[in-house]
Amino acid sequence: MNRAEITDLLRSQDLAFLAYCVARRRRSRAQILQDLWVCYELGEKREGFFVEFGSTNGLTNSNTWFLEKELGWKGILAEPNPVWHADLAANRGAHIEHRCVSSRSGAIVTFLTTDGVDPELSAIAAFADGDHFADVRSKGNRIDVETISLNDLLDRYDAPAVVDYISIDTEGNELDILSSFDFGKRRFRLISVEQNPNTERGIQDLLQKNGYVRVFPQFSQWDGWYVSTELRSGRDHDIVAPAA
């Protein structure tokens, strides 16, 4: 047990995270264990604050259901597809926003709903062709939806200046949303963001520039998982509200 290769293994963050997830895997509601990743990074923090979009029905493959229902977190859920609205309201107690999160507020955009195949693949038409589900989306029904920026979404629901976790899964316009966000106004402890070959490098460059480090890429698959540099370096007390 004192050999270097063994002690290095025991200190491995990868091994620690895998062990944590294996022991708790039945508690997870998320698609690829994002909720357990949040619990791992934040020490199963209670009464935190989350933001999640798209939220679908708030239960199936939800990155935040466990945080709200088991750990007492509050937060904001955004979901523009009407097919999910009744179930989302029934399943969750957080703030719910039906506008589509985008780079700016007040625009009307064409939204492709893929309700007949898999509603989770629905997306803004202008960003719907970035991955291998593009053909499915191209056959979806077209509806008009109003947009809201991430800045305005957080302001509308009085989100704290330091948000514990934000989950961004909008099937293509994730980089567009983040590129217009005011990183000087609010901080996130943790960010998970869906990406595709067209957006991965841009998302990573943008978030690293603004003080976030990518972690566990070997486990996060089509997501990018990012931790504030203060949290990853053990200086969580340094994550403070940005100056007004």
From TrEMBL:
One of its GO terms (biological process) is methylation. The keyword Methyltransferase applies. GO terms for molecular function: methyltransferase activity. Residues 62-212 form the Methyltransferase FkbM domain. Pfam families: Methyltransf_21. Keywords: Methyltransferase, Transferase. SUPFAM superfamilies: S-adenosyl-L-methionine-dependent methyltransferases. NCBIfam families: fkbM_fam. This is FkbM family methyltransferase.
